[in-house]
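Show me a record, fold above all:
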Amino acid sequence: MRYKEPFTLYPRKLKTVTVFYYQCYDNDGKRMNGHSTGQKTRTAARAYCMKLYRDGKLIPEKKTIHFGEFAAGWWDIKTCKYLEWRQLQNPLAPSTIEHYKTNLELHINPCFGKIRLSAISPELVQNWILRLSRDGYNNSSINIQIATLKVMMKEAVRLKLLSTNPMEKIKKLQADNREVQILKNEEVQKLFPPEWQKIWDSYEVYLFNKLAACTGMRLGELLGLKAEHIRGDHIHVCVQYSKKYGIMPLKTKDSRNIPITGPLHSELSVLIAKNSQGFIFSDTGGSLAADSRLFWTSRTSVNSRLSKWA
């Protein structure tokens, strides 16, 4: 059997001199790019490479890369290779991408940007999480930071920039326990009486809040509602609306049908007649969705409205 040399030599003519380069195979058996020996003769180049081979240095060490270098261009659809591939398989909403990008710029890069990628350890990450907590960020906000970094470090492992993932054993923090105040039946009846003018400033605001209370639809889903989505005894929820991004896929990406009563359908028909086939909740005749600020109702606002009935 013919002996296979651990490297091959070849000359490369530079401006004023010819220098020998060598190629070898990495640990996975893949041919690597050529590297200069700095030698002008094949004999000298071979001796140089044999010394590297004996010293275990024939395969050049990978260039040290810092997190900031790795993170350059991330979460930008034009420059992020991960995002380009992700959008073909399981697309992220534009608002989610922007959120991740903000996380990177404001919280992750300032902490890890100047640290070698391989030096980021679970302990370092835990200290970062503790610092965020001490700075007043709640657990839900910190969990978003963790999720952003997890995606990036997992990709670094896939690209073989890391041998192990320091985020693998980092778990999400316990969700913040927030008391949910549920309206009582008598409060609901008072909030949405047949004489809606006694409580609400406009029919649109009244119906928007009533529809939210009866269906559990999200704010963006209500804003994106059009006449075509009202189908007799149910509403077909398939899109959401954002002032910044316009019509977008649902947060869960799965459409659903929500049953509605006959009286509620009749009330919606009033706005359909007003806005034709456009957006149900609109102050431009259906061509544009209304501003979400017109419909925002806090518990304080609810209590204030209930006091009108007292």
